[in-house]
Amino acid sequence: MEDIKDEIVKAKPGWMEGLIKKPDEKHKKNQIKTWGLLTLVCFVIPPVATQVGYINWIFAGTQIMNRGADDADRFEGMEMGKNKSYGKSMLLAISIWLAAKIVFGFFASFFPSLVTSNMGPVIETSLINLCLGTATCYLSTYKA
Fold it and tell me: pLDDT tens track of the chain, all 144 residues?
């Protein structure tokens, strides 16, 4: 039985190694503030929700990429060292964003008022922000 468990652990793809990290309290509170504020803006100014819903994956990808980086190492621009994985973090963020959009479409098929309501985009963006916020709490592509 132990051999099977070892084989399962070894079968994990190499790109997933070190991807999931438990957040500390400071990081968790920072993510709650960031995504909560982004969601609050959508509730206060509903027409902005659609635009926020299209660009929030970029924020998530950047936060996933920079999690664990030193303050001096956060803003390297395109001269990223081997410690950061821009492509992997953006691919993760866009995948989570797309999955959340599909889940919302599934819910909207059962509740058509979500699509016809003026608050539909706000609810959709809130659901996406919840998924992306949870991902940014636990995912990190930065290799220290």
Answer: 666 666 665 666 665 666 777 888 988 998 899 999 999 999 999 999 989 988 998 888 888 777 766 555 555 555 555 555 677 788 888 999 999 999 988 888 888 887 788 888 898 899 999 999 998 888 877 655
